[in-house]
Amino acid sequence: MNPLLEYIKNNKITKSRLASEIKDERGEKLPTRDAFVLLRKYAGDFFQKGKHPRMIALSGLRGVGKTTLMWQTANYVYNNHTTNIYFISIDDLNRLEANLFDIINIFEKEIFKCSLNSLKESFMLLIDEVHETEGWQKDLKILYEKGKKIFVIATGSSALLLHSSSDLASRWTVIKIFPFSFSEFILVKSWFEKSEKIIFPPRELTNKLNSYIFFSEKYPDIKSKIKRISNTIKTYLDTSEIVLGKNVTYLIDEYISYHNIARFLPISNRTLIIERVLGLFDRILFKDISIPGIEYYETINRILFRLVLSDEINFQSLSKDFRIKEKEIEKIIVSLNNAEILNVFLPYGGIKSRTGISKKVFFMSPSLRHALYSRIYGEKLHSLLKAKLYEDIVAMYLKRNLSEGMISYGYGGGKNPDFVIESLDLPVLLEIGIGKFKNGQIKAFGNYRYGVLINSKINQPEFNDNRRVIYLPLSWFLLL
Fold it and tell me: Each residue of 176-210: pLDDT tens digit?
């Protein structure tokens, strides 16, 4: 008996298997996320019209819900297109001392009894943690070339998936899965708590806000557009407060500190969440980045604790403080950025500024910074520390909503705005603060289209027409 053949046969997906995989630990069906709409479209286009893409990778920080999205897409395919779906866990494959090429051979010789090139009917293949098997890039390339009738979804580490070979990069589509948005958190929280109604965000609100905030032509345009949607946003936030029984400030703090990573939303014990997040760090460092030895691990941890309290980072000063080479410091920062622990931004300016030694570092999820904070300060945070969490979430939203090359940070030791968004002819300037109304950094910048000052203490937008600045509630920005 061939153990690998038996494994594949036993992992042809059944309706009961799908039903269990799309439920949480309590047996409650999990709601879909925003990314599911795109995955469903890709799957539908492939099975109905044979359109590309037909190989999709889901990348992102551990725990953000990649595997759940994969199963939810499989459930859609099973109910609408084909029941011919197979699942491969790379953990299982490693225990069987096999690889993806062995799987391809079994499919051809034992399951379909023909070359994958000769298949008449399409099927779906799910691969979990694809990066953990040796030779995965080469094997996926072979699978792509042979399997024109196969719709593949693979999950894995951003550190590897997003930096794969050019051959593979031209064949698959990588979808980056970010931590929850605030509206996703509200939806899932209302779902889990079995509220009297499930709270869905207003239709097209995210697209409108994105267009209004970053792409309005002039200050009067953004001012009028924001006023136009104010009643819609107020109704949504009021409904969230009533249904969930908490005010918006409480919900934002819960979302930012504890519940923006999908895996932890069913957990209400906040101390346990912090412990699990700290465990997430270790799993990423040892499994995704594959750090060489305990001494290197301790160095990375010391650097992380420095970054928790830092704004701009300078490779020269870090090299001096930690007594390791600048190139090694840069390598560590790049690895942490690739693994989606960190979210690194370049300074605003010309080529010289952008290729210099200074960068600004945020955490991809503010829960990561919050967990590290808790080791130093406990769970109660001073407002200045809380402001760093707000900066992290804004930085994550910018990366999720805008092209990488459009965003930079205002270089200059607090004399420039937090972020510079280069869209249209003149940039949009972003400042973040707790109850902040001073806009000196925006005024001092020079030519700009308008400024957006994100304020966590206000409930309605306010406007400074002389300075061309809109004071936007954090609760509004988080609906992007």
Answer: 999 999 999 999 999 888 767 889 999 999 999 99
DSSP letters spanning 357-415: SEEEEEESSHHHHHHHHHHHH-S---HHHHHHHHHHHHHHHHHHHS-GGGEEE--STTS
Amino acid letter for position 344: V
Residue 182 lies in a domain: no
First-to-last alpha carbon distance for the chain, in angstroms, is: 54
Distance CA 135, CA 351 (A): 37
Residue 187: inside a domain, yes or no? no
Instruction: Specify if 471 maps to a domain.
Output: yes
Angle at 152 (CA atoms; ends 151, 155), nearest 5 degrees? 155
Tens digits of per-residue pLDDT, 151-174?
A: 999 998 766 665 666 667 778 898
Same domain for 91 and 221?
no
CATH of residue 107: 3.40.50.300
CB-CB contact of 363 with 369 (8 Å): yes
- At a CB cut-off of 8 Å and minimum separation 6, what does 246 contact? 254
Residue type, 18: L
Q: Are 85 and 124 in contact (CB under 8 A)?
A: yes
**Per-residue DSSP letter, 310:** -
Q: Is the distance from CB of 258 to CB of 185 less than 8 angstroms? A: no
pTM confidence score: 0.90
* 173 vs 162: CA distance, rounded Å: 10
Torsions phi, psi for 395 (to 5 deg) = -60, -40
Helix (H, G, I), strand (E, B) or coil at 420: strand
- Assigned domain for 234 exists: yes
Residue 430: strand, helix, or coil: strand
Whether residue 124 is found in the same domain as residue 232: no
Residues 109 and 235 in one domain: no
The alpha-helical segments, DSSP class H, found in 147-204 are 158-161, 166-169, 182-192
316 and 433 housed in the same domain = yes
Structurally, the chain folds into a number of domains equal to 2
In degrees, to the nearest 5, what angle opens at C-alpha 250 toward C-alphas 246 and 256? 130
- The DSSP-derived string for 451-476 is EEEEETT-SS-EEETTTTEEEEEHHH
Rounded CA gap, 442 and 451, in Å? 6
Whether residues 318 and 222 fall in one domain: yes
Higher pLDDT, 28 or 116: 116
Q: Which residues span the domain enclosing 159?
A: 3-176
